Amino acid sequence: MERQYRELTRRMVVTGLAVALVPLYLLGIALYSYFTAMQEQNHRAELRTLAVNRASAIELFLAERTAMLEALTHTASLEQLTTPGELQSVLRLLNRRHSSFLDLGVLDAAGSHLAYIGPYELQDRNYGDAPWFGETLMHGVYVSDVFLGFRGEPHFVVAVTNETGPEPWILRATIDSEVFSRLVRSAQLGTTGDAFLVNPEGLYQTPPRFGGEILSTAPLNVATVPPGVNVVARTTDDGKKVLTAFAWLTDKDWLLVINRDPDEPLAAFRLARKLELVLLVAGTVLIGAAIFFLVNLLVRRLQTEDHKRAAVDAQLAHSARLVSVGRMAAGVAHEINNPLAAIGELSGLMEDLIDEEFIHATAHGALFRENVHKIQEHVERARKVTHRLLGFARRMEPRQDTLNVNDVIEEALSFIEREAGFRNVQLTRQLDHDLPVIRSDRAQLQQVLLNLLNNALDAVADGGHVLVSSRSDGTTVEVIIEDNGSGIPKELHDRIFDPFFTTKEPGEGTGLGLSISHTIIQQLGGSLDFDSEPGSGTVFFVRLPLTDV
Amino acid sequence: MSIRVLVVDDEEDFLNSIVRRLELRGMTAVGVASGAAALELLGSEAFDVVVLDIKMPGMDGIEALREIKQQHAAVEVIVLTGHASQEFNRMGLELGAFDYLVKPVKLDTVIERIQAACGDQEAP
């Protein structure tokens, strides 16, 4: 492909791809960000629900324990509970279902144990000064923060006051926080999610999955967390983006914290993204292939059209050249004809008079007569040239004879048969005798065929071969004149039909024959083409249109 | 009686030679150098055939032909010119010229056409 077509192809492909793919990719990006936004929204909603659920579960757990103790203080009297051995059976009863109660203690209003059952030696301990004790007396119910007891197990205390008697008394229980930690842990999502409880001081109340021990300080500013349930996107101290749900418990000043990786995709979105990617790639490939195909098709067609137009342009240029050359030829012929006529008549008169005068009797009489005759011959020769020039220049309306091309071929052949005989050139006919008659100019056609036959005869060596055939394909009648002569060199093919172009010796050919023949056949609505292989011969094709007769 | 021919041509050498040669062939030939002179002579003398050039100074051949055919319809005109043109040819024949010949032409051809013109004229 030529350079400008390659450039055109490149530009069209680039433009086409840009026009088709930019919207596709914009759509892809929009869909992707929509998916991402949807995912974050979904993450938030999911996280909020989870936080609310877990917080409720934890509250339920605490409320259950508190309610158990409260029920106990109202169903059993102080006397019953302080009866030795009674507290132990109560603890067993409480732990029948969930063994979360570690110990039980009954305290009087001064903070001294009235009874105690449990693994710790607390029998003689007085809690009168402990902050929780005051709190319990004041509010009736108290839940402590988590602490590590003597055994290093994390646990916390629940206490309730009975004020129905004359003296208030308190039932206190220690609860293993392991059961309760499990509740919180169940909110740890995926492989990177975390969930834990912190107290207002920021100390872990349940062990976090990452970055700390129970009761160590969580990297959070708990004081700034607003009440209720909140979901926020934030960046941790080590630079990781997390989505966090904060949920304050209602009955206890604990904050439930649930972290999750916002980029950890949900299965549905993972599928949607994969599908989108596949669609984008498939779309790109399809659009790209379609554009390449269409552009190539278009450019190839354009190229064909350009070539056709170039051929027509060349044809027109050729015709214009013929016209201008024809005008010049006519002008020259006109100017030469008059002096030629004068020479002809003057010499003719000399020839006419020569016998009457003394000249013929002189020593050079014969020479005079001969030379005057030769002048006449040369005038005749010049006349042929100018008349052919005029014939070439003439844009005459072709006559419309009804003719059989075979007859015209035979007439033309009759002119050259003698010469062919002399030179022992074999003339062969292959005529289609069912040839349809056509309407054309008999004289002009004969001129063309004669010209072509003469050329063929000139081209072959003595003893050569010239084949003349005719045929019809239903739309044209074709005359083919083939010789086995020297052929036409390839570099001369373009000039064969140019006026004044000849390969014959100077003075032998005018260089107008083929040019005129070409013009004539064109004027007759046909075409004159040739095919030549140097060394093996030349074929001329005369095609004439079949017309209504 | 010999055929009377009037040759009209501005080319003096051609005119004199052809007139002389026609006379040598037994015709009565007169030469004039312009269309106007031809019309003048035709007014006073009778001719069978006029051999007429086209490109001439003053009145050109086509105009002269028109005048001759108007004034002397019986006179046959043979156009003989160096300016072979399809248009002149067509016009000449339309205006009633007997034939249209292109210079240079063999004298025998001219005589043959002159005789043909007279023969047609004299035919019953």
Quick synopsis:
Chain A is an alpha+beta fold. Chain A has ten helices and 17 strands.
Question: Can you offer a commentary on this structure?
Answer:
The complex is a heterodimer of chains A (549) and B (124). In chain A, strands 1, 2, 3, 4, 5 and 6 form a 6-stranded antiparallel β-sheet that branches. Chain A is of the alpha+beta class and 549 residues long. Chain A folds into 3 domains: 1-264, PAS domain (Beta-Lactamase, 2-Layer Sandwich); 268-390, no CATH class; 398-545, Heat Shock Protein 90 (2-Layer Sandwich), CATH 3.30.565.10. The radius of gyration of chain A is 61 Å and the shape is rod-shaped. In chain A, strand 16 and strand 17 form a beta hairpin. Chain A has helices spanning 3-75, 78-82, 86-94, 131-139, 177-185, 267-354, 365-393, 405-422, 442-459, 513-523, and strands at 101-107, 113-117, 141-143, 147-148, 154-162, 169-176, 194-198, 229-235, 241-248, 255-260, 401-403, 426-430, 438-440, 465-472, 476-483, 527-533, 537-545. Chain B has 124 residues and is an alpha/beta fold. Chain B has one domain (4-122): Response regulator (Rossmann fold, 3-Layer(aba) Sandwich), CATH 3.40.50. Helix content of chain B is 48%, strand content 19%. Chain B has 5 helices and 5 strands; from the N terminus they run E-H-E-H-E-H-E-H-E-H. In chain B, helix 2 packs parallel to helix 3. The two termini of chain B are 18 Å apart. The model of chain B has no long low-confidence stretch (mean pLDDT 87). Classes of the chains: A alpha+beta (549), B alpha/beta (124).
